[in-house]
Amino acid sequence: MQPSTSMARLIAAAASLGLALALALPASAVTAATSAAVGQDAAAGSAEALRARYAQLRPRLDSNAFGRPLYLVSQEGPQVLQGDVYGVVEHPFREVSTLTDADNWCKVLTLPFNVKSCITRGDSLSLFIGKKNYEPVDKAYRLDFRFVPVAQGPEYLERRLRAGDGPLGTRNYVILLEAASIDEHHSFIHLSYSYEYGTMSKLAMQVYLNTIGAKKVGFSTTTGDDGQPRLVGGMRGVMERNTMRYYLAIDAYLNSLSAPAGQQLDRRLSDWFAMSARYRRQLWEMERDEYMSMKRAEAQHMAQR
């Protein structure tokens, strides 16, 4: 079954964003994201709470299948799904704190294949979501976020991007980032990604999962009907892949800060592609030259807007 052109655009948007609503996991920051997702105000976290989470997760950060200090978790419920990544980055907190700027979020969020453009105005941030291949921005879906500076201090920051409505009846989008200093050269990051979906968006996702996404998997291991372990697929797989893509985008952005200004774009693109290619089964979409060419063209278009 091959989807029509219009349906292909719908499922491309669904595949890029993932389908989720924040669920209450055993961490205060995730609870905060849940409250934000349903339109309620939520208290900020703290460096102490995030460091406690770091201590709790330390065994999993030190030993895992990712080859880096990283822990990923996803949960699925009726019409709700969430992905969370916790990881240590080799960057001092002063570099991580540059993510208090909405313009720098555009440098992060445009690294994945499906995000065609990003613009900011005041406390608003708009993403344009399309196909994985090059596509004019006017054919992409526009998703308008409000950039919420929740907390900022010398050793802790928390930012949320919130969007009330999206395509196909999706709503209550939340991207949550919190970070705390660990030592002079390392920071601990928590990225949570979520939104709520309805009947139309579920249908689009089912078409995607039955066609181009049928063989795609996530990172978590579950038990199959035969009792053997297997990588999670379906909607949880979609969420895990996209949450990982955005986490790697944050790390690639941080890496680029050490490059001269004129070289930072290529450094971000190159690092994001290289890090994603380490997880080829989950994240591979195209060859490096095609990706670099597409993203340079999109960046040039963004600069002209």
Describe this structure in words.
With 305 residues, the chain is of the alpha+beta class. The protein has one domain: Alpha-D-Glucose-1,6-Bisphosphate, Chain A, domain 4, CATH 3.30.530. It is 40% helix and 26% strand. It has helices at residues 5-17, 28-37, 47-62, 93-96, 102-109, 199-210, 234-256, 264-277, 280-283, 288-304, and strands at residues 70-77, 80-89, 115-121, 124-129, 141-152, 156-165, 171-181, 187-196, 221-223, 229-231. A hairpin with a 2-residue loop joins strand 3 (115-121) and strand 4. The model is unreliable at 16-42 (pLDDT under 50).
Order of helices and strands: HHHEEHHEEEEEEHEEHHHH
Query: How many domains would you count in the coordinates?
Result: 1
The CATH architecture can be named as 2-Layer Sandwich
Helix percent reads: 25-40%
Sheet with the most strands: spatial strand order = 1-2-8-7-6-5-4-3
The secondary structure category is alpha+beta
Radius of gyration equals: 18 Å
Distance between the termini: 38 Å
Biggest sheet details:
8 strands, antiparallel
Question: Any low-confidence stretches, pLDDT <50, length ≥5?
Answer: 16-42
Shape: globular
